[in-house]
Amino acid sequence: MAGPESDEWHRPLRIGISARLMHDPPPELGFRKKRLQYLEQSIAHWIIRHGALAFMVPAVDAESARVERAVPISCYVDVFDGLVLQGGADVAPSSYGQQPIDARWQGDPVRDRYELALIREFLAQRKPVIGICRGCQLLNVAFGGTLYQDIATQVPHAKAHVDNDLYDDLYHEVTLVPGSALDALYPAERTLRVTSIHHQAIDRLGEGLQVEARSSEDGIVEAVKWAGPSYARGLQWHPEFHADRETLLASAPVMLDFLNACAQRRRETTGARVQSAV
């Protein structure tokens, strides 16, 4: 007869998605003076399309301390198999020990604290993490790295990596680092064109991170992977926006690689629980 361990082995993977935060919603939304937490549907669909379940992980901060005491963040991580960090607002310079060089680039320290806590707990439990755009940058910060607060200002030779009018119709070419794990996922790819929706980027690389891809034209870091004991990868582009766009780098290989790592970690932890019960 199948028991709880058997059910655990066969259930779909549960993937947590970090929330985007809207601190001051427009009045027409009907949430006056309330903070909204939300996700963009493409990132959920990117996960669901490959057979996993997608769940948004609610943010808890100092203003919700009673909630945090009631349900520690480790309880959320316990029930998920992996974490996807959404894109969105700038990472706050204060999160990597700098002052804003322009008032427009103060970022969102509230969201930083929430997502950094998630990253650290997932890695502590050795559960896979993948960061998209802002998520890639925040992974770098989590490992002690820094960012360019504004590419155009601090890397004047760089091409434009963001266009507010074109948004996800702005593309550029990336070059994969030969021999990297990401390179192995795309052995037959000829088109390495990706979306570009960011004005910040990795500057000093975080400890233990390895560059997997760079912008072909200007060398800006476009993908990183941690060399440590757990799976952690960051992609500066938005693979969730690449679905059904044949001219862009396929989004399936990186998601399937992430989900395979999640499944492997679940097998390890489930096996350990079974052994301890014997």
Name the average pLDDT. 90
Shape: globular
Order of helices and strands: HEEEHEHHEHEHEHEHEEEEEH
| Broad structural category | alpha/beta
* Low-pLDDT runs: 274-278
The number of helical segments is 9
Total beta strands: 13
Percent of residues in β-strands = 15-25%
* Rg over CA atoms: 19 Å
Considering DSSP H and I runs of 4 or more, what fraction of the residues is helical? 25-40%
The separation of the N and C termini measures: 17 Å
Tell me about the largest β-sheet: 9 strands, mixed
Major beta sheet, strand line-up: 4-1-5-6-13-12-11-8-9
Secondary structure topology:
Layout: H1 4-10, E1 14-18, E2 20-22, E3 36-38, H2 41-48, E4 53-57, H3 65-70, H4 73-79, E5 82-85, H5 109-124, E6 129-132, H6 134-142, E7 147-148, H7 151-154, E8 171-176, H8 181-185, E9 193-195, E10 201-202, E11 209-215, E12 221-226, E13 232-235, H9 252-277
Parallel strand pairs: 1-4, 1-5, 5-6, 6-13
Antiparallel strand pairs: 2-3, 7-10, 8-9, 8-11, 11-12, 12-13
Structure in words:
There is one protein chain. The chain has helices at residues 4-10, 41-48, 65-70, 73-79, 109-124, 134-142, 151-154, 181-185, 252-277, and strands at 14-18, 20-22, 36-38, 53-57, 82-85, 129-132, 147-148, 171-176, 193-195, 201-202, 209-215, 221-226, 232-235. The chain is of the alpha/beta class and 278 residues long. α5 (109-124) links the parallel β5 (82-85) and β6 (129-132). The model is unreliable at 274-278 (pLDDT under 50).
Provide a compact summary of the structure:
With 278 residues, the protein is α/β, with parallel strands linked by helices. It is 32% helix and 19% strand.
